Prior knowledge:
Helix content is 71%, strand content 10%. It is an alpha+beta fold.
Amino acid sequence: MLSDLIYIYIDQSRFDSALHYxxxxxxxxxxxxxxxxxxxxxxxxxxxxxxxxxxxQSLHYQFKDLxxxxxxxxxxxxxxxxxxxxxxxxxxxxxxxxxxxxxLQEHHRDSIQKEESKRNIESLKVQFDTEKxxxxxxxxxxxxxxxxxxxxxxxxxxxxxxxxxxxIATILGFLYYRNQSSKxxxxxxxxxxxxEIERKLLRTQMSPHFLTNSLGTVKNFMEKNNSxxxxxxxxxxxxxxxxxLGYSRSENITLEEEIQLLENNLKLENYRLxxxxxxxxxxxxxxxxxxxxxxxxxxxxxxxxxxxxIERSQNLNGIIEVNISxxxxxxxxxxxxxxxxxxxxxxxxxESYSLDITVERINNHNKFQSKKILFSIEDRKDSKGVEVKxxxxx
Length: 394
């Protein structure tokens, strides 16, 4: 709860308050010898000082966090620390170090994936019984003998191939050296554009309006002595914040993860506005765990449906529907429907901002990905309210 409060103050740019409560968190961590809590505190210091443009202090705490993580042996959040250090170096204009730590972050992710693959392979090997192992060994020996004969036959050809590869490698090396500077610059520009979109996305998901409403809901429960409801709400709120922060750094998530985020968000809003109902309907033919989309692409429009279609229109029988269906083997469709007053009476600056961010994200996705996304928003033709439509290539 203390960590959540610190990030609320960070989001509100109240850095003095964030530093004050983070110092409390640091003292508690040192007293209880909780290395995870201390790591969270160092990470928060790094974020706060970076936002205050005190990049020297930010790097000081980010490297302390890096040292603590390595000493503890728990590298679960090592990629986040590498990412934060890379971002600070980029702010300082030190693009060489920025790229170094960005690649360390990517290398760490690859290492985790390779380690998981290695463990899976070892687990499968353990399942083999003695007879199958002997058969596999016999087959391997036979294969090695065949390979040896084949290698002897191809030895002469191999020498020619190696000489050719040396010549090709020399030419490619020259071309690589000549284009390296341009490639590095392009890589940093693309990284900067991606990070800017991530920051805009995070601002739309962690708006002061949403945080204020959430705190108000908890306060209301506490005033009514309904501690269980307050506790349930805070649990869901913590899940929402954690997943929002985590997904904002991902290029894609599964449609199933997006739906879970939507459902958690709607349940949070239902605590505050129990008068509306909602449903999420998924076509049984779709494998939503195998469909990947940009993170939190749908959520802003569900929030707008609650805020403008239900709350501000004072709709006492508000209904929000999320319908996910198949459009054949190559496409899936997501419809977000509400029964509010429509676009003409609910258009607000924040809603327009969310729409602009979505269009920017879709254009950026379609520019670099072969699987395209189509998007539209309009008043419903069959009844009151708004219809938001996404079509995803599979």
